[in-house]
Amino acid sequence: MPSRIPGALLRDPRVWRGATSHAPQPDRIASGHAELDRALHSGGWPAAGSTELLCAHSGGGELSLLMPALAPLSQQRRLAWLNPPYLPYAPALLAQGLAPAACLVVQVKGLREQLWAAEQLLRSGAFASVLTWFDRPNLADRDLRRLQLAAREGPCWHLHFRPLAAAQQCSPAPLRLCLEADGDALALHILKQPGGRSGQRLRLPRDPRLLFQQQPVDQWPQWQRRAGPGLRLAASQAPRQAQRVAPAAAEPPAELH
Amino acid sequence: MLWLCARFEQLPLEVLGSRDDQPLAVTEGRRVLLANAAASAAGVAPGQSPSTAQSLCPELRCAARNVEAEHLRLQQLALWGYRFSPDICLHPPDSLLLEVSGCLRLFKGYSRLQRGFARGLQRRGAHFRLGLAHTPLAAQLLSAIGGHSEDQVDNSGQLDRCSVDAQLAALPLRLLPCDSKARQKLEAMGLHSLGELFALPSAALNKRFGPGFGQLLARIRGELPDPRPRFQPPDTFFSERQFNGGLTSKEQLRFPMAALLSDLEYYLRLKQWINRHLEWRFHYCDGQREQLHMPLSHRHFQRRSLLDLVLLKLERMELKGHVDSLALVCEQFEPLSGASDDLFAAPGLSTTEQASRYADVIDKLQARLGTDCCFTPAQADEHLPELAWQTRPPQLPPQNAASSEAIKKGNTALRPLWLLPQPQPLARRNGSLYWRGTLQLLQGPERIDSHWWQQRQVRDYYIARHEGGALYWLYRDCLQERWYVHGLFA
Asked: What does pTM read for this prediction?
């Protein structure tokens, strides 16, 4: 008797629903990837609370996964990066549509201070999203719970980057994702999500521009003298799709040999 | 005109930290100028020599008069008194004069104003006497005896001239601010009160004592104008609290700090300014001094959050001994810029609220972790990738217009989201590049040739794939023939 169930109860993210389809949560953040939006029961990223991203290596596309969601947020509110492993590179952020002026990078040494700073940032309400990296991969359950509560209080979308090994540890974060580079795509595995079944696996292709194979010489950009005055650049044809490259086919340049 | 005069006769004692249980005498030029209650009880009186006083009261502490401190204290009191009237003047060494006729309506009558003024002065530990009259000089004279009552002013703000004139007439002549020769002459004439003097014809007095004397009497009676320089609040803020015997623990500092911040709050409201910096000066009993600087980025002065911030900072500091006095100094201010919220704002926090919360969290982080713990990245116009970004202090307002324009322009070149702080040299294994695993070049090169005017850099940038699937940004230094990894396409 689905009609008897009050709507408010169904909208509660804590209610686990088996088979019925889900209406998107009103305050979700569109992820910018239609496939991911479909896989998440809330219809997008949560606007508040902790989201754990477990990734094996940096450079697998974990930030570009978030960029379509973070870029609109940065236009209205601010983002904080706590203890990032490398420098967020301003020209690349700009190219992705994210305003570097809206970013605050906080570098803190020592786990205790990092946890304190994370809680302050999450609780302040000044940030739409806080991205955190901690020195120690295994945080105590109590600390994780504090961060989740602070993020809900903010409200603030806490993106907690953790190593893959933390997947075994249970966590109070409502949404947990495993990220792994898989060939030309980013493989996602939803370990846990609010409101329903988890365990979805997705492959999101990476930006095809990154994966262009070395272009043959005849497709290189070249200067051509035309009849008209001045020089014009004849652009090489961009490949229609990212080419899959067999590992053996890639040749390092001649200087290496 | 309604002049209220507050006379602080105990000022020389107060600035030297007089306590009721400890006899103290202020000396000036080898004579006791003033003694506190404990010393007076032992027989110490003004005019005695310090040795006489010491023999009367062996535990007496004699201290030389500190005129500078008195003046500073008087100025602080004037700054505080500024909230009662804009027309306030200092009358050194020990009096403040307030013209209050314009402020009666604001305070709903004279009696309320006077009660508030007296209560505030008592709370500041000042001993005072009040005098009220229609001229500044008369108010000053009346404050010497302090026979003052609230009901001298009626509901419409009119002074009861009859009672004031009667009080003036009863004043002894020794209070008259004239030279001692004239005073002796008056005494020899058998005059003892001001009333007797007023009864004499002014032409005769002028003839006897010179025109200056007549003018003095005319100023007392209000027949001649008596302009006074107005007190202006100073351009820098300074406030100090003395602790008798010194404070030992940080917890005890909480209340004086709150009081100092409250002074500053009032000063800032007065000036419509906002401070960007706090400087605390600790003076220890053993003569040591210490300063505590706090840069601030707040948009509104909120005493409570600021106090928390100060205590956070204080937590990290070790007191070097007993704190004798604590001063708060502010020298840099900015005009307060009013910000308005959107009328049809989106749900959630307003932009101004967010900005103030952002400033709060930055202040907290910087107070605990140091000022260089956070920054905002920004783009720079440079060719070399490591120079194409820069750090900006987080307090600066975001350049919204500029940044959105820059987004539109958006460089189409592929740039990694992660940049290594230093390019890492690559090794070669089995004929391929190696950095935490084998690398395989996917595309390139993009040549960047720049800085020929300093140290020429020629680099060919490639995108490479790590054996784990991650994408790296490599370059070959064409001059040194070496490979480096410079970023990660995260």
From this structure: 0.64
For A56, nearest residue in chain B (alpha carbons): B468
At A159 the pLDDT is 94
Does A186 score more than 60 pLDDT? yes
Residues B427, B434 contacting (CB under 8 angstroms): yes
Q: Determine which of A121-135, A164-178, A226-240, B238-252 has the lowest per-residue pLDDT on average.
A: A226-240
State mean pLDDT over B275-299.
Answer: 85
Which residues in chain A touch residue B476, judged by CB atoms under 8 angstroms apart? 253, 255
What whole-number percentage of chain B has pLDDT above 90?
9
B contacts of A117 (beta carbons < 8 Å): 365, 369, 373
Q: What secondary structure letter does DSSP report for A86?
A: S
Q: How far is B341 from chain A (nearest CA, A)?
A: 14
Cβ within 8 Å of residue B120, ≥6 positions away: B80
Predicted confidence (pLDDT) at residue A71 exceeds the cutoff of 50: yes
Out of A86, A90, A213, the one facing B379 most closely (by C-beta) is A90
Q: Which of B378, B417, B472 sits opposite A92 (nearest CB)?
A: B417
Residue B409 pLDDT more than 80? no
Pairing of strands A175-182, A49-55: parallel
Query: A58, B442: Cβ pair inside 8 Å?
Result: no
What are the tokens at B323?
């704190």
DSSP states along B182-226: HHHHHHHTT--BHHHHHHS-HHHHHHHH-HHHHHHHHHHHTSS--
